[in-house]
Amino acid sequence: MGTEAEIQNTILAYLKYRRIFHWRQNSGAGIMKQGAGTRFIRFGVNGAPDIFAVKDGTIYGLEIKSKVGKQNDNQKEFQEGFEKAGGVYHIVRCLEDVQKIGL
Q1: Is residue 18 within 8 Å of 53, Cβ to Cβ?
Q2: Residue 27: strand, helix, or coil
Q3: I need a labelling partner for 21 at 20 to 30 A (CA). Which of 10, 13, 84, 102 fits?
């Protein structure tokens, strides 16, 4: 099965091969040098899934998890809002999970 990073890379390569419009959603924070000082920067949306894909007018959020990985509270909250807005959200643990949902 592999690590979450390995699973993610496999899925990204698959979506590219299938020519399905998609992007990796990075989120987090970091410190950036600015002049003589530093600046703290947040990027992405807290709880957003790892990959977004659009096929046939539907947007999918794919949260990559290992065999034992679980969503945190921020991810659960994002899923709820995403689905209420009409998105399709899936927790995927392998490439086969992505294929089963029709991507």
Answers
A1: no
A2: coil
A3: 84
